[in-house]
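Try it yourself: sequence plus iron/sulfur cluster, in.
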Amino acid sequence: MKQLQEEILKLKEKENAILLVHNYQRPEVQEVADYLGDSLALCRKAQSETDADIIVFCGVDFMVESAAILSPDKMVLIPDPSSRCPMAAQCPKNTVIEAKRKHPGVPVVLYVNTLAEAKAEADVMCTSSNADTIVRRLGTDKVVFGPDWNLGWHVARQVDSGLELIPIPEHGYCYVHKMFDPTTLHSLKTKYPNAELVVHPECDPEVQKIADHVGSTQQMLEWSKKTSSDVIIVGTEIGLVERMRREIPGKTFIPALNDAICHNMKKITLEKIRDVLVKKNYVCMVPDEIAERARSGIKKMVQLS
Ligand code: 13P
Ligand code: SF4
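Structure, out:
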C-alpha cells in the first residue's frame, strides 16, 4: 500500500495533478489527498485558482462533474467512472422541468447531489452545509427543493418561517443514511450515557431529532473537534469515522452503524488512481451548453454561502 501511495505522489508531481478527495473515501485514499473535505469544500477547491493541469477527483459522479464545470480549463479525471450516486439519479432533468412548469416563478434549489443536466435547469445549488443559508437568502416563502427529502426537512426546520418546500421527486433519499434508525441510536445512547450524537441531514427526521448536532461531513468533523464530550456516536458513512479517528486521536468515535457504507464511494482504490494518472483514460466531459447553465447555479451557491 505504501509503495502505491508513493507511486501516486510521484505521478502527481510529474503530471502537475492534484487529488480532491471526499470524506467517504477509503482511508488509504484519504491519506494521499491534496484536499479532503465535504462537497462544498471540494467545489471551492475546484473553483479556486490552482496551477495544477489535472484534477483527479475521488468521489462520485456528481462531484466530479461539478469539478469539471468549475474548472473547464483543467483535465478532470475520475479513477472509476462507475462510481455513481444513486440519489443523484433520482432527479433527472425532466423532473426539474416539470416542476418549473407546475410552479412558475418558484425558485428551484437543487442539492449538489444531482447530475449536470438537472443542475442546468435549476436556479441555485446547495450542499448539506449551506442549504438552510441558501434558502434563507433567497428570501421567498416557497421553493422547489430536491432530491433529498430529509435534507429538505432539515432546511424547513432551520429556516422555521412558514417556508413551503415542494419536494422533487416526492421522496428522494440516500440509501446509506436511510439505514440509521432511532431505536438503535437510543440503545447506543443508553450504552454510552456520556456520548453525544452527531448525524448528517440525509438521515430521517426521527434520527435528526435525537441528535446533538446535524451537519455536513465537514461540519460533523469540526463540531466533534470542539465539543467537550470525549465519546461521539457518528451517524453517517463510515469513511468519516475513519477520518475522525485519525485526526482527533484523543476522542472515541462510535459508528452508529458499521454497515453504513457507500459502495460507490468505495469503488475508488489506490490502483485505480495510479492507473488513471498514467492512462488519463477517464476524463469527465460535460457538454459546454449544459456546463455553462449548471455553472451559474453552482457559482450562485458559492456566492450566497
Ligand atoms: P457532504 O457534502 O456532507 O460531504 O455530503 C455528501 C454526500 O454525498 C452525503 O451523502
Ligand atoms: Fe450518494 Fe448517499 Fe453515497 Fe452520499 S452516501 S454519495 S448521497 S449514495
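One thing you can check immediately is this: The domain at 87-174 is CATH 3.40.50.10800 (Rossmann fold).
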